[in-house]
Amino acid sequence: MTYASVMVHLDRSERAMHRLNLAAQYARAHNARLVGIYASFAPSISWFYMMENAARYLEEDRIRRDSIRDAVHARFRLATEGLPVETEWRAVEGDPVALVLREAREADLLVVGQRNHDEPDEFVAGDFVETLILESGRPVLVVPYAGSFTTLPKRVLVAWSGGRESARALHDAIPIMAGANAHVLQITSTQPKHWAEETTVGQVARALNARGIHATVEETDCADSDTAIGELLLSRAADFNADLIVMGAYGHSRLRELVLGGVTRTLLKTMTVPVLMSH
């Protein structure tokens, strides 16, 4: 299994180029088309019409945002020049969430950045990354805003719950895990659930081994707290020296309101290595 296309979200932040370089590594490894999708914060036009000289401010803002977009496009061309894969630049104008979702659904892998609340240049829209994870239907690789991640993963921690979301994430990540070592971790809360349909970690290891991926397994208990489970995942990732975490994303949209599962929310806030999430 390989990816045929890798799409990376770009914006005006410096971390966007770091994401692009990492996405290029994945594209090269899979001989996949690399697509840069540019989307940045766009203020609502209705705000401007509350101001005097609205037309002038609108035109000035358009020129400013076009200039930033063109500068990022130039950096994209420079960074991808000479890559031995097909590359493509796309830019959306309008609602960044809806328009990136529309583009992302054709990609095999979507690469985005963790939200950095201390860096205003990285803000695109409220719940931007969370919406892409829950609504795109594609595996989403979230890259932390801190740290350097420039190589393909060699040691992968698979967070296993036995259910649909983790199964989806596992199989979405198989192209990434080719040639890597995997550690499958199942965390049982203090209130255990006994469902006949839950797939065991042993079955997961068997599925990975059948694809030539060496896998070890671990089952451990944890306090019945989403935060504690998220912290344990990160602790085990450090113990295993993992350079990627694979996990199912839990949550749903309710009347345009995102409701994320607690473990998913914890990892998105405190990740220390890239995390591949599928919903």
From TrEMBL:
Pfam families on file: Usp
InterPro entries the UniProt entry points to: Universal_stress_UspA, UspA
CDD domains (alphabetical): USP-like (cd00293)
UniProt cross-references to SUPFAM superfamilies, sorted A to Z: Adenine nucleotide alpha hydrolases-like (SSF52402)
UspA domain mapped to chain residues: 3-144, 154-277
Superkingdom in the source lineage: Bacteria
Coiled-coil annotated spans: none
Similarity-based family: Belongs to the universal stress protein A family.
Protein name, UniProt field: Universal stress protein UspA
Organism, as annotated: Ralstonia pickettii (Burkholderia pickettii)
Organism classification: Bacteria, Pseudomonadati, Pseudomonadota, Betaproteobacteria, Burkholderiales
